[in-house]
Amino acid sequence: NSYGQGIIFGPGSRVSVSP
């Protein structure tokens, strides 16, 4: 699941660190 831009977790999964 992609959430904005940030650290990549798993295949294509991104967790945003910035607001």
Automatic annotation (TrEMBL):
Domain of life: Eukaryota
Protein name: RCG64454
Organism: Rattus norvegicus
